[in-house]
Design goal:
The chain is an alpha+beta fold. It folds into 2 domains: 11-42; 45-159, Cupredoxins -  blue copper proteins (Immunoglobulin-like, Sandwich). Helices cover 32% and strands 23% of the residues. The strands form 2 sheets. Strands 3-9-8-5-6 form a 5-stranded mixed sheet, with helices on one face. The protein has a 4-stranded mixed sheet with strand order 2-1-4-7, with no helix packed on it.
Length: 160
């Protein structure tokens, strides 16, 4: 006579439960990998720093949906997009003197901007979002110190 202790053993049920546990672990691992990949695809954050009479970097390359923050604007700098020198349909901006502003740029193309008080000494910058789809338009419409920013964009694009 055999004496059994504990619960009855069912090999098929045990194998099924082990399979389910492995499947749950595999799903968890795949979810983790997908979450990490998605985290890398989130929009990036970039900074433009106002210096004495220039913006650094002078030409900034970003992707659509990225955030651009203007910092160290102090009480003497502003940031204003220049009329006719941003992509068609893009929202222009104007940050007040001393205001550290933040932009999220979704429209591809070149955005030329200036510091109004220091425009005469060449405080102009450019943001290239994705592809420079409006380069010809910007080259045609740029006047004054904005032409220098367009030349810097062309040089930066050539190095890219």
């Amino acid at each position: 006579m055999k004496i059994r202790t504990g619960l009855p053993y069912n090999k098929k049920l045990f194998q099924w439960r082990m399979f389910k546990m492995k499947l749950i672990n595999l799903k968890s691992a795949l979810f983790l990998v997908a979450a990490l990949c998605a985290a890398n695809s989130f929009a990036a954050e970039h900074f433009i720093v106002a210096q004495a009479t220039s913006f650094e970097p002078r030409v900034l390359f970003v992707q659509p949906g990225d955030t651009v923050k203007f910092t160290r604007m102090s009480p003497i700098h502003d940031s204003v997009s220049m009329d006719g020198l941003i992509p068609e349909g893009a929202e222009p901006w104007k940050f007040a003197i001393g205001e550290n502003g933040t932009l999220t740029l979704d429209k591809e193309g070149i955005y030329i901007y200036k510091c109004t008080p220091h425009y005469a000494v060449g405080m102009v910058g450019a943001i290239v979002v994705g592809e420079a789809t409006n380069l010809d338009h910007v080259k045609t419409n740029a006047t004054g110190r904005a032409k220098g920013a367009v030349i810097k964009v062309e040089r930066a694009l050539a190095k890219k």
